[in-house]
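Listing S7. Sequence submitted for prediction.
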Amino acid sequence: MARKQKITPFGWEVKKRLAELQMTQTEFCEQEGIPANRFSELISGTNQEARYMKKYRIIVAEKLGIEIREVS
């Protein structure tokens, strides 16, 4: 059985906001044009050094009205 990825504090905020909007991660990704694998990496905090992750982090935060508190 595969081990689940940990979720960052930012990831929990994203998940909470999506639940409030009654929207799935898939629906959000399709609506905003964000690749699902990149969204997953954003939630779990993996691959944060990649230069494109900052772009996605900003998009997600702006669209969901979430403050970015973590340094990336």
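Caption to Listing S7: primary sequence and predicted structure tokens for the chain studied. The CA atoms of residues 61 and 67 lie 6 Å apart. Helices lie at 9-20, 25-32, 36-44, 51-64.
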